[in-house]
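Just scan my protein:

——
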Amino acid sequence: MGYLDSYRSPWMTDELEMLAQTARRFFEEHVTPRDAEFRKNHEIDRAVWRRAGELGLVGMSIPEELGGHGGTFAHEAVVVQEQAYQCNTSFGFVPGALNAPAVFTQIASPEQSREWTPKIVAGECITAFALTEPGMGSDMKALRTRAVRHGDKYVINGAKTFITHGKQADLCMLAARTSDEPREGISLFLVDTKNSPGFQVQKVLEKIGQNGLDTCEIFLDNLEVPVENLAGGREGNGFSKLNDVFRSERLSIAVSAIASAERAIELAVQHSRDRQMFGQTLWDFQNTRMKLAECASEARAGRMMVDALIMKELEGTLTMQEAAMAKYWCSEKQCEIIDTCLQLFGGYGYMAEYPIAQLYMDARIQKIYGGANEVMKELVARGL
């Protein structure tokens, strides 16, 4: 029995096990074999999204009454884990992209849901969430993009950066300021990107990891959005809505972090048992065993923390501080554990074709997106 097979999460059910198998086959058949292509192109084939939709892997936690599958955060967590085990980030189920459908669910009116949800769930509509701006960082109250109402439309001007799926998105949830109030002045808009000339993708950004995702700079030049596309039909509710989304997003980052660390350990154990050095295997060196024992213990501690918080999320009792704890601690351990495991591969660990190298490159952003870890510690401190 391998490291990944030695523990079953208490929230896991037979139904979720079946979902995990479906997700595993999806990634093995449709994503992993083409991952190098997707990373080179900085985007995934849209046919892969449609296949995911056919398998029921998109919009799983969107309520049935809104046209989704009526699942829970646990359904999303299962797919996040399976993708992490594949050492893959090209399919937009990683935390940096996963929150876009969640934002839509939180902010859309019933009429907006009826229009867009069927296409999202079918994998025919790729979504993006445009919040971050140049110089803004994790400070939502520093938002500068401005939306001004003119009759039956809003005219929006500003700039966004680090927007995942910015190029491919059909529907973008866009945050803009409708008044000067720090919190109450933030509103959210649904932008049909393919029919909005003012929504201009400037360029796809070159990153050190997660290269299969198109991450873009976007310029909003007199972008016209119909009044009916104001999310929820009311100005100023963006800040509170986004805080609800951020809590679950940060937990999803923790889920991804621990799953990636677990996969790194499995790869390192396998490699160290096979690698011959000085007349014995790498595993035969006590230092190797001690290092991997430390990694396994820390990953298991993180796994149990994440499992406890998933259960709280399912009960509706997860707090913002707990999500922040999990996000910062698990992403820190992810980077530390993967770095330790990569070292055991020697020069091969530095080669991009090896899965351990992909894990290493893709991990670094986890300490930044979803709120930088320094901000997470501040959130934790406020609750002390």
Notes: Residues 240-382 form a domain with the Butyryl-CoA Dehydrogenase, subunit A; domain 3 fold (CATH 1.20.140.10). The chain has three domains: 3-121, 127-236, 240-382. The first strand starts at residue 127 and ends at 130. The mean pLDDT is 91.
